[in-house]
Structure formats: structure tokens, C-alpha cells
């Protein structure tokens, strides 16, 4: 099972990433843009994800992924149940969410291509 500490350890390695506690919720952002956020109880995690691809992600594993609240569906965002998320999948999701919010050159430096 993934924890906030696991995500924190990964986020600390990502350039320009910072952690914030906003309204009792742990959030990771680059500048003012949040790319990962946990629910207050830390049982769910929201993360940046392309809107046009999220229906496919959710359909592929509806027990893990779900849409954010209606007011947040206008954003490039999707949510997951932390207890069902493995470490490798978390690493991929968090890294890709980070890549969406940093300059392309920085993402290339970190991830290649």
C-alpha cells in the first residue's frame, strides 16, 4: 500500500516540486500548480491527468480510479484509492502528473525523451 510518505519521498526528487498543507490536505505542486493532492483522511489521491484520456484510465480499472467531484472535472485531474495503488503505479502516475506542469526541457532532463 502506498502512503503519503512514499509520494513525499518521490516528490522530493522531482525538480521544482514542493509540499504544502492546504486546508488540512497534503498537496504537491510546482509553483502555484498542484499536481498531486491527498484527501484529508489520506485515503484518496488526486493527480494531474489529461482529460481526454481519463475515461480510458477509469474504465481500465474502475475499482482503483474515479472522477473527481463535478466542480473539478473541468481540470486535468483524476482520483484513485490509495489502498489499492501499488508503488510502481504510484511512481508512474505522480511522475507523469509532475511532467504535465513543468517546462518540457526540465521533464526531458529528468525523464529523457
* Residues in helix, %: 25-40%
State the CATH architecture: Alpha-Beta Complex
Average pLDDT? 94
Query: Class in CATH?
Result: Alpha Beta
The figure for the number of domains is 1
- How much of the sequence lies in strands comes to 25-35%
Give, in spatial order, the strands making up the sheet with the most strands.
Answer: 1-2-3-4-6-5
How far is the N terminus from the C terminus?
Answer: 30 Å
Low-confidence sequence ranges: none
Q: How many individual β-strands?
A: 6
Largest sheet: 6 strands, antiparallel
Structural class: alpha+beta
N-to-C SSE string, H for helix and E for strand: HEEEEHEEHH
CATH fold topology:
Aspartate Aminotransferase, domain 1
Give the overall shape.
Answer: globular
Radius of gyration: 13 Å
Number of helices: 4
Protein name: YjbR protein
InterPro entries: YjbR-like_sf, YjbR/MT2646/Rv2570-like
Organism: Micromonospora humi
Amino acid at each position: 500500500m502506498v502512503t503519503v510518505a512514499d509520494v513525499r519521498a518521490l516528490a522530493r526528487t522531482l525538480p521544482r516540486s514542493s509540499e504544502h498543507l492546504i486546508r488540512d490536505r497534503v498537496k504537491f505542486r510546482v509553483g502555484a500548480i498542484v499536481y498531486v493532492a491527498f484527501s484529508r483522511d489520506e485515503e484518496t489521491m488526486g493527480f494531474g491527468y489529461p482529460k481526454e484520456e481519463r475515461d480510458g484510465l477509469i474504465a481500465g480499472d474502475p475499482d482503483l480510479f474515479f472522477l473527481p467531484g463535478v466542480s473539478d472535472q473541468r481540470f486535468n485531474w483524476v482520483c484513485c484509492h490509495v489502498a489499492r495503488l501499488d508503488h510502481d503505479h504510484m511512481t508512474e502516475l505522480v511522475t507523469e502528473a509532475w511532467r504535465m506542469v513543468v517546462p518540457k526541457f526540465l521533464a526531458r532532463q529528468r525523464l529523457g525523451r
